[in-house]
Amino acid sequence: MQAKDLAQLAEQFGSPLYVYDAAKIQSQYQRLTKAFSKVEKLRINYAMKALSNVAILELLREMGSCLDAVSIQEVQLGLHAGYSPDQIFFTPNGVSLEEIEEVAEMGVQINIDNLSILEQFGTKYPNVPVCIRINPHVMAGGNTNISVGHIDSKFGISIHQLPHLLRIVENTKMHIVGIHMHTGSDILDIEVFLYAAEILFDVAKNFKELEFLDFGSGFKVPYKKDDIETDIEELGKKLSKRFNSFCAEYGKDLTLIFEPGKFLVSEAGYFLAKVNVVKQTTSTVFAGIDSGFNHLIRPMFYGSQHHIENISNPKGKERFYSVVGYICETDTFANNRRIAEINEGDILSFRNAGAYCFSMSSNYNSRYKPAEVVWLNGQGHLIRARETFEDLLKNQISLPVETAVV
Fold it and tell me: What is d(CA 272, CA 263) in angstroms, rounded to the nearest whole number?
């Protein structure tokens, strides 16, 4: 998308505003499927926790994507968006047996990541096919908060617990149809991914009824000009060859599954915010915007970088600014960042705002969540209305007058 298109959308729908470029989502989806075109059976399960707006789910369904859900509410959203139960994969962590049972009754494929629930579920429902999430004990990811395959992670069943896992399967006679792993996000070194894949293959040899292997995702996308990213094409070439070789050894063409979230939607997203004030101090020039970490928390939570452009003055002389929000705690998006000269009233655009941005937003400070727009065929379509004061009050209940403290 061009700056003039974003500026027009900010004027039309107001700010702050999330904008998603449908064409970019489609090109990322096609890039991934092309990279693994040598695999006979490939399935993409979009990790909907990245961005779960129903309109985005519908767009991805039209592209051929399935879904990866981590809560029963995400499963329900997927069904609402037109996905059939067999197109949804449920990969929760630390949820109750009751939630897993309820999802299984919907006909959705479940993925279990701990021995306790596996034994309980297998005892009650030995005929329901199950996928198992293993922890390969491989440290991968760009931040400790998003590295989930290491030895101290709460995710997955440790590969060192394989004898216990096999005993449960033997005792319950349950049917294991898939093995799954996810090592972390922002993976740069594909050799680490391939190393973890070998662990998955070794585990898979212990199960004779497999239908698929799920390699998770975690592909890194670029956050700035000339930034490094996961080489999807190289990974596709190497992993496809090894996967096909394993299928030959196994004696069956299995389905290769990936669960991309950020890879599909991150670069498609833009967050637009208006500059309320330009504040000069003794050492810093602050650009204070009409938003905060209530709308975009990733820079504060993960230390992530979002490229910031002044789309109101894209060719202006660059100066150094610290871009901050209006929240009452430290609320800094960028420190001493070079940005085209900013004036009060200008619109700033934050790149890579498609993944884990709106979905992690909140009503902190009793602020409204922003609107969402999808840019499709050269036109902006509102896909979520901006919240109002009535939305803040919707589920709140006042105490009866007679119970008031005197």
Answer: 21
Q: Which two tokens stand for residue 141?
A: 């990811």
Sign, Cα dihedral of 190, 195, 198, 200: negative
- 274 with 191, same domain? no
- For residue range 5-61, what is the model confidence (pLDDT) as tens digits? 999 999 999 999 999 999 999 999 999 999 999 999 999 999 999 999 999 999 999
pLDDT tens, residue by residue, 364-386: 999 999 999 999 999 999 999 99
Does 402 show up as a binding residue in the annotation? Answer: no
Average pLDDT over residues 90-109: 95
Please count the structural domains in the chain. Answer: 2
Consult the annotation and say whether 61 binds a ligand. no
Known binder of ligand: residue 384? no
Is 250 marked as binding a ligand? no
DSSP summary character for residue 302: T
Residue 229 vs residues 140, 144, 258, 271, 390: alpha-carbon distances, Å? 14, 18, 17, 21, 43
The two structure tokens encoding residue 391 = 């939305």
Can you tell me which residue has the tokens 């833009």? 270
* Helix runs in 46-161, H state only: 54-63, 72-80, 97-105, 115-124
Residue with tokens 């297998």: 122
The domain in which residue 291 lies consists of: 269-384
Q: Residue 142 pLDDT > 50, yes or no?
A: no
Pairing of strands 176-180, 212-214: parallel
| 403: in domain | no
Question: What's the CA gap between 301 and 80, in Å, rounded?
Answer: 31
The string of pLDDT tens digits covering residues 205-235 is 999 999 999 999 888 898 888 888 889 999 9
Q: What is the dihedral of CA 380, 381, 384, 386, to 10 degrees?
A: 50
Which of 66, 131, 247, 328 does the annotation list as catalytic?
328
Catalytic-residue membership of 328:
yes
Judge if pTM exceeds 0.90: yes
Q: Find out whether 218 is annotated in a ligand binding site.
A: yes
Write the single-letter amino acid at 100: I
CA distance 39 to 33: 9
CATH, residue 295: 2.40.37.10
